[in-house]
Amino acid sequence: MRPDISGVIVMTDQLQWQGEDVIVAVATGARIPARTFHWLCSLAQLTSRQLVAVEHKQDAHVFNGEFKLRTVGPEEFRQAMVTYFSQIGFTTTHVTREHQIIEWAAH
Length: 107
Hints:
- It is a single chain.
- The longest helix has 14 residues, at about 35-45.
- This protein has 3 helices and 7 strands, in the order αββββαββαβ.
- The protein is an alpha/beta fold.
- Helix content is about 30%, strand content about 35%.
- The model is unreliable at about 100-105 (pLDDT under 50).
């Protein structure tokens, strides 16, 4: 997944939760494109991994240091990610937990 095309840097071996690898996606710009985020949610579901996405807030096209976390996983995972990112220096946080991202259609 090329960051210049997908709008995201994806890491699968940088963070663990409850002994399992977490998919970490960091936006290369302010936001992860919707199509890319949907693909990442599919990957998380197919691999039975949790997903945390980091997006950056901008004011007048300049990053202001704030960020937004989006998580796919249980509430305990969301809480663990908020704690983890706060401990490593991300202090201003807006967090959303994505609810049922994908519904499989029967063919």
